[in-house]
């Protein structure tokens, strides 16, 4: 249990997908103009990461690996299968949410298609493979990574809402400033690197 | 509008086409991939002695790497008690080929300590005689590993090469990229003046014992400490073998 | 009748003003990175050195070009319901081809780029161009659009890598340009002409890519004021 919490904290704060690896930057920059939309996208990312990570773990370990179902090394199909799982999961989640909770669909729905091409999702799965996590660890990594991404996008959205009232040079306004801010936030997050999560 | 049948047909044709193309490519390139993988590992071993030999391991052509390995390197594998293992015994531990180059040091680190096997490369070319040992440890983010070359006296370091899985570029990754830092290790002894095993300690803020300590890397204390820990523990594993070799 | 002729002219394979525009627009006023804000993730991670950035740029041009072409050729037969997955599978196949090829011919780059080759799949440039252009235009034009966008992306990548490698390591393509050689740290007599420059380690770290891209956007918009964000 402690190990799982350790991975959660590590993936959420120390190895933050958005601010340490800069994954999912396209949607991170495009949807962070207001806190409200950022909140919706952030939730959707936690949701999808939490679901796809364990599925991809099962696929990687029981279908693609040499000790899996086919007894041959099929890792060259990894990218295709991972992205297919992510795309179909996103569509499935979209349909299920639409059917059972229209209110949630209204707040999350428009972001779901965006998530398929969010590199944080595929990146998370690829990191999971390279870090050789077991099943429960990959669930924890997925949820932690999603939570970290959620925190990062909320933070940048809040700053961007405030900075609208500042005197930024016209050519730097908007996008340029968002890049600078993310860089500064990334620097700030680097200071968390030395933390030993097993101390919690 | 497409009917369900059409959709299914389209998807089936497409997936089989994709799978066919990729499997053909994969099987076609598999040999090259395996060769590249092996050469990459061999270059890392040669990198530990590259300064002594005056070569640049990373830019050596494939044939030359093979040539050096065939003519001047003798590969041996030992168990934790210092007994030489036969290729069949190494294969029994799960490494096809049974040579030292087939041993995956990161896989070994997951076994209980007493069951591990240790690869060793004996380099001999004229006057140049080195023993190259492989060590594995933990950096800040993930595993780090390296090859350490010892001089003929079995205690002075002739050269080192480190690699890592995911250290931060510019900070922890300096253990691999910073040639000057790696050069510090050359000439250090893994025993102190009294003959006790010490490894090589990495000291934050500057080395005090010039014979067996080196400076740390600013901004990468944990990774640099990891290197020190790796050397101390990893080289100690070879203790029984080194003792035997010194006696003979 | 006249319209049909124009249409026929446009769909024929030639290289006129319209085709040139497809190639040059993404280099400036419609740049995928600085204007469309697509494909940032990989732009940040692989720009510590010119060599990696160049390999990545070539890989992306290859993928955008062929994915645009293939999708455009299939655009009338792809069933709407599975459109997105079909597009992703086309991209993923091309990326896997790139990965297998790199592993065979440029193993060092393959090792260094690691997961970021796979992440070309989710590089929004590829998907974005498929949706915005290839689904509505012919294969030839789509191919040109793919090349244009891939190159526009590659240029930014190389610009960022240039700044980061030169000021972070004092090197370009691994060759020493400014600052002292690493040997200087151990032996202060081995100095040379440009030894006064001390490497700025910040430039090697991830966040610096953000600052460099931010500065490029700033310069780009100051030079071309029609792009300034009014909101």
Q: Which strand order do you get reading across the main beta sheet of chain C?
A: 1-2
Low-confidence stretches of chain A: none
Q: What global shape of chain C is seen?
A: globular
List low-pLDDT spans of chain C.
Answer: 1-11
Order of helices and strands of chain C: HHHHHHHHHEEH
State mean pLDDT of chain C (0 to 100 scale).
81
Chains forming the largest contact? A-C, 49 and 48 residues
- pLDDT averaged residue by residue of chain A: 85
Q: Can you give the helix content of chain A as a percent range?
A: over 70%
Number of strands of chain C: 2
Oligomer: heterotrimer
- In total, the number of strands of chain A is 0
Element layout with pairings:
The complex is a heterotrimer of chains A (200), B (248) and C (231).
Chain A: H1 2-14, H2 25-30, H3 35-64, H4 78-100, H5 102-108, H6 112-116, H7 119-131, H8 135-163, H9 175-190
Helix pairs in contact in A: 1-8, 3-4, 3-7, 3-8, 4-5, 7-8
Chain B: H1 4-47, H2 50-53, H3 62-72, E1 73-79, H4 87-92, H5 105-108, E2 117-125, E3 128-138, E4 143-150, E5 157-164, H6 174-177, H7 179-183, E6 201-203, E7 213-215, H8 221-237, H9 239-247
Parallel strand pairs in B: 6-7
Antiparallel strand pairs in B: 1-2, 2-3, 3-4, 4-5
Helix pairs in contact in B: 1-3
Chain C: H1 2-11, H2 17-24, H3 40-45, H4 50-74, H5 83-105, H6 107-113, H7 115-118, H8 124-134, H9 139-169, E1 171-172, E2 175-176, H10 206-223
Antiparallel strand pairs in C: 1-2
Helix pairs in contact in C: 2-9, 4-5, 4-8, 4-9, 5-6, 8-9, 9-10
């Amino acid at each position: 249990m402690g190990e799982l919490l350790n991975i959660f904290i590590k993936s959420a704060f120390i190895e933050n997908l958005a601010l340490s690896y800069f994954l999912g930057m396209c949607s991170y920059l495009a949807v962070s103009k207001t806190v409200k939309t950022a909140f919706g996208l952030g939730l959707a990312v936690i949701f999808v990461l939490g679901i796809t990570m364990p599925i991809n773990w099962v696929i990687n370990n029981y279908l693609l690996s040499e000790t899996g179902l086919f007894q041959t090394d099929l890792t060259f199909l990894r990218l295709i299968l991972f992205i297919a799982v992510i795309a179909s999961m996103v569509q499935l989640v979209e349909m299920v949410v639409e059917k059972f909770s229209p209110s949630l669909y209204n707040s999350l729905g428009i972001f779901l298609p965006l998530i398929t091409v969010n590199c944080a999702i595929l990146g998370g799965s690829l990191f999971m493979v390279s870090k050789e996590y077991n099943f429960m660890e990959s669930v924890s990594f997925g949820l932690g990574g999603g939570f970290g991404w959620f925190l990062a996008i909320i933070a940048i959205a809040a700053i961007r809402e405030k900075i609208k009232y500042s005197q930024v040079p016209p050519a730097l306004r908007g996008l340029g400033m968002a890049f600078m801010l993310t860089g500064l936030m990334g620097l700030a997050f680097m200071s968390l690197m030395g933390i030993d999560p097993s101390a919690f | 509008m497409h009917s369900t049948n059409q959709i299914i047909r389209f998807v089936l044709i497409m997936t089989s086409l994709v799978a066919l193309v990729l499997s053909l490519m994969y099987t076609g390139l598999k040999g090259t991939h395996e060769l590249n993988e092996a050469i990459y590992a061999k270059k890392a071993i040669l990198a530990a002695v590259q300064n002594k030999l005056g070569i640049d391991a990373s830019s050596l052509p494939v044939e030359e790497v093979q040539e050096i390995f065939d003519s001047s390197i003798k590969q041996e594998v030992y168990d934790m008690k210092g007994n030489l293992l036969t290729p069949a015994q190494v294969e029994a531990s799960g490494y096809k080929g049974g040579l030292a180059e087939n041993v995956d040091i990161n896989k070994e680190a997951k076994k209980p300590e007493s069951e591990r096997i240790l690869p060793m490369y004996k380099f001999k070319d004229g006057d140049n005689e080195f023993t190259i040992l492989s060590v594995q440890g933990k950096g800040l983010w993930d595993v780090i590993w390296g090859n350490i070359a010892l001089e003929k006296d079995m205690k002075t370091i002739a050269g080192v090469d480190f690699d890592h899985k995911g250290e931060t570029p510019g900070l922890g990754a300096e253990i691999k990229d910073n040639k000057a830092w790696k050069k510090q290790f050359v000439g250090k002894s893994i025993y102190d003046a009294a003959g006790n095993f010490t490894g090589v300690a990495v000291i934050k803020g500057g080395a005090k014992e010039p014979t067996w300590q080196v400076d740390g890397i600013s901004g990468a204390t944990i990774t640099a400490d990891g290197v020190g820990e790796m050397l101390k523990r990893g080289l100690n594993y070879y203790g029984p073998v080194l003792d035997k070799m010194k006696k003979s | 009748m006249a319209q049909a002729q124009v249409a026929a002219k446009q769909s024929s394979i030639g290289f006129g003003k319209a085709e040139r525009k497809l190639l040059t627009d993404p280099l400036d006023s419609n740049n995928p990175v600085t204007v469309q804000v697509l494909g940032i993730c990989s732009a940040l991670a692989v720009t510590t050195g010119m060599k990696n950035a160049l390999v990545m740029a070539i890989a992306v041009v290859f993928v955008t070009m062929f994915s645009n072409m293939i999708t455009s050729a299939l655009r009338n037969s792809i069933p709407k319901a599975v459109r997105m997955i079909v597009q992703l599978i086309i991209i993923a196949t091309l990326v896997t081809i790139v990965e297998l090829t790199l592993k065979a011919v440029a193993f060092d780059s393959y090792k260094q780029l690691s997961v970021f080759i796979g992440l070309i799949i989710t590089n929004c440039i590829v998907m974005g161009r498929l949706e915005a252009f290839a689904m509505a235009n012919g294969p030839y034009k789509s191919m040109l659009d793919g090349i244009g966008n891939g190159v526009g992306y590659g240029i930014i990548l190389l610009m960022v890598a240039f700044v980061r490698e030169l000021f972070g390591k004092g090197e370009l393509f691994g060759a020493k340009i400014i600052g002292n050689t690493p040997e200087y740290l151990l032996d202060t007599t081995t100095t040379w002409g440009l030894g006064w420059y001390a490497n700025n380690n910040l430039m090697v770290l991830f966040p610096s890519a953000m600052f460099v891209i931010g500065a490029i956007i700033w310069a780009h918009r100051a030079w071309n004021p029609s792009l300034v964000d009014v909101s």
